[in-house]
Design brief:
single chain; 4 helices; mainly alpha; 185 residues
Amino acid sequence: MSSRRDLNEELFGTATTSPPAASKEASREISLSELAELSELTEEQAKVRVKVTHLATCVEALIDGLDQTEHRLDKLKAALKSTVSQVERLSHADDLHSQQLGELGDSLRGLESQLEGQRNALAFLRNSDGQQQQIIERLKQSRLTLTHILLFGTLLCAGGALFLDVDKAFSFHHRLSQLESIVRY
């Protein structure tokens, strides 16, 4: 005895066994219209299965795409947080640099004022040096004049010694020497 073929088993994979066919006459009892209906149902079920399989594949692809998108979104969020952190650090560093530049500007202005003071002191020293040079030149000229006066006085003393008393001449010479030493110092 052989079991009868079941369309449900072929279409859906459920194993339902039919009672064995009694004879060829019993199988002929199924009408052609019933077979046509069964055939249409089988075709529709196959189409539905294909559509369901296609939809299931699409849903799986969408779920995978959604998972990948979420993973990418997490990476982008982490990158954005890192970028924000870097921008904050750069902003803080920029503030520090601005503060340091301000301090350097203040230091530079202080150095410029010190340099101006040193320039003024140098100009004063140059002016003083020029005045001292003039004083030295005047002293040299005065010394030269005094030397001439002393020579003239010495000659007068020598001449006076010849004509006058020698003691009076030497006392005059002594007074001129004292006058010269006072002028030098």
